[in-house]
Each structure stands twice: as C-alpha cells, then as structure tokens.
Design brief:
This protein is 90% helix and 0% strand. Helix 1 crosses helix 2, helix 2 packs antiparallel against helix 3 and helix 2 runs antiparallel to helix 4. The mean pLDDT is 83.
C-alpha cells in the first residue's frame, strides 16, 4: 500500500470514529436528559437533580465494578449513567 493511500485510510478511519463517537454521546445525553426531565416534571427540580447525581454516582461505581470483573457491557452501562454527571451541573446553575 502506498503512503498516500495509507494516509487517506487513516484519516478516514479517524474521522469516522470521531463522528460515530459524537453521535453516541449526543444520543446518550438526550436519553439522560429525558430521564431527569421526567423526574423534574413529576416531583420538582431538586428531586430531579438529586436523581441525576445519584445515577452519576451509580455509573461511576459500575465503571469500577466493570474493571474488577472485566465486563465491557457493565462498563458501557456505567458510562451511560455517568453521562448524567455532565448534564446535572448544567441544570444546577439555576438553583432549586
């Protein structure tokens, strides 16, 4: 394989992985926002924020557990729950 062809293949692979990773993060953020929004609509702002924080903590614990047992599926579930940790502070800046 020539060097220019290898460079094109490498750049295409890297660009594709960035796009797919971004789509995954966006979809996860949307699902997490729906979970927190439903709790907030039903019970109020503070319980919704608390739920988000608790799910983020549970996600962190799942990630640790995944590293102990060596489970990729548990790692993905923990990462999805931990994503709430990115969303909750955005809602928290407006107070309870």
């Amino acid at each position: 394989m020539s060097i220019p062809a290898l460079q094109r293949r490498t750049v295409t692979t890297l660009a594709g992985s960035q796009v797919l990773g971004g789509v995954g993060v966006s979809a996860g953020a949307a699902v997490a926002a729906l979970v927190v929004a439903r709790v907030m609509a039903a019970k109020g702002r503070c319980p919704g924020l608390t739920t988000g924080y608790l799910l983020a903590i549970a996600g962190g614990l799942l990630i640790v557990a995944a590293s102990v047992v060596g489970s990729f599926v548990v790692l993905l579930a923990g990462g999805a729950a931990l994503l709430l940790g990115l969303l909750v502070p955005l809602g928290r800046r407006f107070g309870c």
